[in-house]
Amino acid sequence: MTETNAITIRALRKVYKATGGKKLRHLSLPGGSFMPGGTGGMPRPSAHDVIALDSLDLDIRQGEFFGLLGPNGAGKSTTIGVLTTRIVPTSGTATVAGSDVGTQAVSVRQRIGVVPQQPNADRSLNVIENLQFHAAYFGIPVAAATKRAQELCETLGLSDKLNVKLNEMSGGQQQRLMIVRALMHEPDVLFLDEPTVGLDPQARLGLWEILRGLHAQGRTIVMTTHYMDEADRLCDRLAIIDRGKLLALDTPRALKDKAPGGTLLELVLDGDALGAAEKVKAIDGLTRVEASGTVLQAYSGTGGRLLPAMIEAAEQSGRRVKDIHLLPPSLETLFVSLTGRKLG
Ligand SMILES: Nc1ncnc2c1ncn2[C@@H]1O[C@H](COP(=O)(O)OP(=O)(O)O)[C@@H](O)[C@H]1O
Ligand SMILES: [Mg+2]
Fold first, then answer.
1. Does the beta carbon of 75 lie inside 6 Å of ligand 1?
2. Ligand 1 pocket residue status of 171, Cβ below 6 Å
3. What is the C-alpha to C-alpha distance for residues 49 and 63, in angstroms, rounded to an integer?
4. Are residues 138 and 106 in the same domain?
5. In 46, 84, 215, 251, which residue has its Cα 20 to 30 A from 29's Cα atom?
6. Whole-number CA gyration radius for the chain
7. 293: domain range?
8. Is residue 191 part of a domain?
9. How many CB atoms lie within 10 A of CB 41?
């Protein structure tokens, strides 16, 4: 039922038109005429158009910590952009906290908090000024805003930074400020676009704790990431997307159980792997043996136990093994099996 959904996405499509035609339309020639062929009529589909979202359907429940997982260019930021009313979709609908992103954008914006990938607070203001400024935009009186800012900064470990300007803060501190800012107006749904990119490991873990805490308070969180461990550890449910399409949707546990064929064994050889693949195919217990350039891959249901046999077979084919990778069943192996590519 849509009533219990925090977010409902139906047949959402976003096509970024190739820029060439658009630019021509605005280019006036001497004499005031326009480039011929650039004006009027329906926009023509072009081979250079980018289909960023391709008929996406998704329901995100209230209180859920939901992850959009996919490689660069998958359409994650475009999805967030549409849901936060920043990007107008080409077709399809989306509702957030009961309001339509197209026709009720103002009420959507009042119910959401947005943490962008790049901290975008005003660098000439200090922390408290930034937060008061943001609160004013939402009609929160300055006294109430100051109190709330102080409380949130305390919770997120920024209470000693209230009077500090942004360029004197670390990346992790700035990212935490973005979260404080997003929470100032008590939003129902919090959006975070790749919140831990560029953070050092310690800041990353700190941010995970903060997000877990917000989730425990019952807030709906939608986070994009291309880090499968982050998605795995934080999210209740994940949508794996690639090239604007939904590939899989479930809990991290169920998704990992769907990862086929067990452990992925991979050898990097000193030359073409085709001959080695033929020999490896004869080993009992290895499935889906494939050669791609110098890389030889096979799946095993018994962890790494067949690795020595695989190495021996490769060496019998006249190749030397330069590197070995072993990948237990994971979101990564599921992604490889769904797309034939690595997540990143
Ligand atoms: N403003 C834009 N104009 C043209 N193409 C865009 C624009 N924004 C994103 N794209 C393209 O749309 C696709 C999806 O992008 P994006 O949603 O940013 O992916 P992600 O956030 O998963 O990396 C990519 O191919 C990207 O190059
Ligand atoms: Mg992005």
1. yes
2. no
3. 36
4. yes
5. 46
6. 25
7. 260-328
8. yes
9. 7
Residue 144, domain CATH? 3.40.50.300
What is the best residue among 14, 16, 54, 246 to mutate for testing ligand 1's pocket, by most ligand atoms within 8 Å of CB?
A: 16
Rounded-to-integer distance, Cα 86 and Cα 77, Å? 10
Query: 214 and 281 share a domain?
Result: no
Same domain as 77, residue 216: yes
- On whether both 6 and 18 belong to a single domain, the answer is yes
User: Is residue 176 domain-shared with residue 314, that is, in the same domain?
Assistant: no
Mutate which of 14, 46, 50, 53 for ligand 1? The one with the most ligand atoms within 8 Å of its CB, which is 50
Instruction: Supply the pLDDT for residue 3.
Output: 53
Closest ligand to Cα 117: 2
Among the atoms of ligand 1, which is closest to the Cα of residue 80? 17
Give the three-state DSSP class for 75: coil
- Asked if 159 contacts 150 with a C-beta cutoff of 8 angstroms, the reply is yes
- HSE toward the beta carbon, residue 159, CA cutoff 13 A: 8
Name the residue of 72, 78, 222, 242 whose CB sits within 8 Å of the most ligand 1 atoms, as the mutation to test its pocket. 78
Residues with beta carbon < 5 A to ion ligand 2? Answer: 76-77
Let me know if residue 37 belongs to a domain: no
Mean pLDDT computed over every residue of the chain:
89
Cα 61 to Cα 239: distance, rounded to the nearest angstrom = 13
- Domain shared by 190 and 265, yes or no: no
Q: 3-class SS at 208? A: helix
Q: Name the closest ligand to CA 78.
A: 1
Specify if 39 maps to a domain: no
Q: Are residues 63 and 201 in the same domain?
A: yes
Pair 224, 270 in one domain: no
Question: Is residue 95 a part of any domain in this protein?
Answer: yes
pTM comes to 0.80
Question: pLDDT of 3-55, one tens digit each?
Answer: 579 999 999 999 999 875 544 444 434 433 344 444 444 556 677 899 999 99
Q: For residue range 212-252, list pLDDT tens digits in order.
A: 999 999 999 999 999 989 999 999 999 999 999 999 999 99
Q: Is the CB of 74 under 6 A from ligand 1?
A: yes
The domain total for the chain is: 2
